[in-house]
Amino acid sequence: MERGAKERNQQLYKPCSNGIIAKEPVSLEQEIQEPRGGGGEFDMSDILYFCRRGVESIVDDEVTKRFTAEELESWNLLTRSNYNLHHISARLTVLWGLGVLIRYGFLLPLRVTLAVTGVGLLVVLTSIVGWLPNSRMKKYLSEKVNLMCYRICVRALTAIITYHDRYPKNGGICVANHTSPIDVLILASDGCYSMVGQAHGGLMGFIQKTLVKACPHIWFERSEVKDRHLVAKRLSDHVADKTKLPILIFPEGTCINNTSVMMFKKGSFEIDCTIYPVAIKYDPRFGNAFWNSSKFRMVTYLLHMMSSWAVVCSVWYLPPMKREEGEDAVQFANRVKSAIARKGGLVDLLWDGGLKRSKVKEVFKEEQQKLYSKVLVKLLSLR
Q1: I want to staple 138 with a disulfide (CB 3.0 to 4.6 A). Which of 39, 48, 59, 132 is the partner?
Q2: How far apart are CA 47 and CA 38, in angstroms?
Q3: Residue 359: Cβ-neighbour burial (10 angstroms; 0-12, 13-18, 19+)
Q4: For residues 160 and 151, what is the distance between their CA atoms, to the nearest angstrom?
Q5: CA-CA distances (angstroms) from residue 14 to 160, 257, 309, 317?
Q6: Where in the chain are the domains?
Q7: Is pLDDT of 5 > 50?
Q8: How far are the Cα atoms of 44, 65, 115, 363 from residue 57, in angstroms, in the given order?
Q9: Degrees (nearest 5) of the Cα angle 230, 235, 239?
Q10: pLDDT tens across 217-238, in order?
Q11: Rounded CA gap, 44 and 308, in Å?
């Protein structure tokens, strides 16, 4: 792990093109006017615009591809993307075979041992610390135990991390783009946080229950309305106490493939406190950190990560931000999101990451209808 400006001489990894179809940023009004040639009333040619956009979205939309692994420009010797080309090169096949032996025969057993050690120590030591009475000593031991165990777990992934600037201070909320559960390890190995997130079952749920014994983390069920109000109250109380650790939140609410930043939920931005934005950018050439939770279970995903070459990423701690006068929570969330996207070299999207598991809401369709109506009214007024 490195801190500082060593990356000044390193070229940041640039992802491959954003899509199959080249799209210029053109307004709805301009696109509709092009085939119709003017006029303010409905024209049959307007249908062509909506048909074309529909077909373009089927071929290559900017949302659903954020929920699958990013495509690489070149092969990284991890998987075979085309089984019909097994024997295209004997030398390449031998090289891939050697890579498999190294990754599964040497690196994987070593990493699994480190991971089991780190998680085991985390469970045992946080349980012991949890029995201590609330005091400065308990807080000190909790921070040291968490840092030690998270750093062991990070080494189990052979993580090469470059941190820029300093981690957040107490009494605020740290928000970051979300790619996988190891985002927590990446950040928590550099500083201690109180975490807020979805309650899980299985291995993740067991670890969550253990962590909360030594540190005031907040786990909730997203589907429960009463949980939302309780979480908001606990967040407000937490940030009001300047002696408590900063809260770590991933406002997207789901894992995105690290090519973009999607809509931030406004909940954490409604609280009157300092927001510390953090941008995390992974280099997929050494291993794809994205967790496709609809395809892989947690243990399967972790085995994939521990059998990759390494986890290489950069972390930028951005300057603290506060809500401006007259700015609502949604506008503030979008401003923070844009800052993270710019720093991490990610695409800034307004779409909700919840589309990963749910259908498109009717409000989105109504919004397109409103935009079209406004265009017609504007064109009619110009006649």
Answers
A1: 132
A2: 15
A3: exposed
A4: 12
A5: 18, 14, 19, 20
A6: 83-351
A7: no
A8: 21, 11, 42, 18
A9: 155
A10: 888 776 654 666 777 788 888 8
A11: 54
Contacts of 328 (CB under 8 A, 6+ apart): none
* Alpha helical stretches, state H, 39-89: 46-59
Per-residue tokens: 140: 């000190």
DSSP 79: -
Are residues 43 and 232 in contact, defined by beta-carbon separation less than 8 angstroms?
A: no
pTM of this structure = 0.79
| First and final C-alpha spacing in the chain | 64
Q: How far is it, in rounded angstroms, from Cα 232 to Cα 171?
A: 15
- C-alpha span between 339 and 223 (Å, rounded): 29
| Cα-based distances in Å from 333 to 58, 245, 267, 329 | 29, 22, 9, 6
Helix (H) or strand (E) holding 346: none
- Pairing, β 218-220 against β 194-198: parallel
Distance CA 137, CA 155 (A): 27
Contact 175, 278 (CB under 8 A): yes
Average pLDDT, the chain: 80
Asked if residue 24 has pLDDT above 80, the reply is no
Q: Any idea how long the chain is? A: 383
> Phi/psi at 5 (nearest 5 deg)?
-100, 25
Count Cβ atoms within 10 A of the Cβ of residue 201 and give its class: 0-12 exposed, 13-18 middle, 19 or more buried. exposed
Phi, psi angles (nearest 5°) of residue 176: -145, 160
- 252-304 tens-digit pLDDT: 988 999 999 999 988 889 888 899 999 999 998 888 899 988 888 888 898 98
Q: Which residue, 84, 18, 73, is CA-closest to 283? A: 73
